[in-house]
Design goal:
38% helix, alpha+beta, 6 strands, 4-stranded antiparallel beta sheet, 6 helices, two-stranded antiparallel ribbon
Amino acid sequence: MDSGSAWAGFVLLVAGFFIYFLPTFVASSRKHANFTSIFLVNLLLGWTFLGWVAALVWASSANTEKPAEKNVQGLVVSGDRACPYCAETIKCAAIKCKHCGAEVEAVKATSLKQGWVASTTCRDEEEQERTIDAIKMAGLPVVTMTGLAVGAGPYETKDEAKQARVVLRDGPHIFSEVIYRDSVSGKYPPIAD
């Protein structure tokens, strides 16, 4: 056997390996939630054409890993929020979306009376209502500020409020500032339990 046919054999072996495990590579690149199961189906049943096609279709399905989890803590004023997968409205306490069937984490309400807030000032009451709806749809807790200002929060840490500010900026395109909302200065309305 000459070196040319040895190289050709090696190239065919590598190409065959890549094609055989293509469903696994697709699942890995898409960060599929069922990556391990897809890999096992691909490994054990991929030699059958039907098993390989099933693994590839499964790997291409929309059941991907959860997006960067928004650490949503604080007072939840609304009972609704947006599903992080399909953006349909679901209850804050939901653990499974009734629209797409995705498993989601429930948003738990805490009884913070003060903390860090991603606050935005509105021009009028109509804009304030739209902003409140947008914050709710982003799955964040809504808190009133002074005047027409509203915010997402309150949060225990400034980093959580900064994360909420990023969610508001990237999602509904609401620009806000991170401020500390206290409960003792009398500057802000009291937060109801």
